Amino acid sequence: MRNFIIDCDTAEDDIFSLFMLLHNKVKVHAITVVEGNVSFPVEVQNALWASEFSKRFFGEEVKVYPGMERPLVKDFKTVENVHGKGGIGDLTLSSNLKPEGKHAVDLIVELADRYPGELEFLAISPLTNLAMAYLKDRTVVEKIKKVWVMGGTINGHGNITPVAEYNVWVDPDAAKIVFNSGFDVTMVAWDLITQFTINEEWEEIKGLKTELSEMYVKFYKHYREFAMTYQKMKGNPHPDLITTAVALDERVAKRVEKFYVDVENCDCSTRGVTVIDYLGVLGREPNVNVVLDLNKKAFLEDLYSLLRR
Ligand SMILES: [Ca+2]
């Protein structure tokens, strides 16, 4: 059985990523929450709601550990305009569950100790929690088997600035630490996943009439409208869910190459850019598996399998 931590700035795509993990019967040891999409208390509430729902629907309750509420160095901004006030549109979720008292960073270090060589870290979020865990205990690099990152760009098309992707832009200092520390990182870029949006399939999904498909339509409606209106997309994107599918199903990443990738953390117009040395001009050891193409058919099979459950 595979062992995961899912690190979330909990909006719609984070929630469905958790569902996809549980649907595929991997062990999810924790939801660790980090700064990002919406206000931190809303992210924690969304994670608790997702945990409570998962207990009923998948028979698995996953504990929620609040972590870093801000980036390592510089401030950031939330993006309620993209995901809605509640992170799932303007709806709000609530739960009777309470978050764990232990800090997410301590939990990451502990779980890495408990499952050395087995633990996989799914970072569909800014990388502050993982960078802090590394700064606290450098041995997590050897103990954490895989780090799956939704973040960065491969062609320089950003979403929060002209050239930077949101997750990396929020905490480029943390991303720089994680990318340069020796973790086995696989990166799924924003300007890759935008080519694999849910377009006419939206109507098909509406027609499925299952509990999860109805929730999908409700949760993604705001994000879909934003993406189609302001981001020139044909449908709603799945940055987190595609990264999760890449982690779970080896068919989904169609082309992956390892390059040296650095992160720009200057206070400048290119802050948060993933600098990919495609030609090896820096002569540095490649450090990141960069996903360059995706198999939409395989991803759709995985998505439909979840929504039909
Ligand atoms: Ca996310």
UniProtKB/TrEMBL annotation:
InterPro entries: Inosine/uridine_hydrolase_dom, IUN_hydrolase, Ribo_hydro-like. The keyword Hydrolase applies. Residues 5-301 form the Inosine/uridine-preferring nucleoside hydrolase domain. It comes from the Archaea. It holds the Pfam family IU_nuc_hydro. Gene3D superfamilies: Ribonucleoside hydrolase-like. Keywords: Hydrolase. The keyword Phosphoprotein does not apply. One of its GO terms (molecular function) is hydrolase activity, hydrolyzing N-glycosyl compounds. Signal peptide: none annotated. This is Inosine/uridine-preferring nucleoside hydrolase. It comes from Metallosphaera cuprina (strain Ar-4).
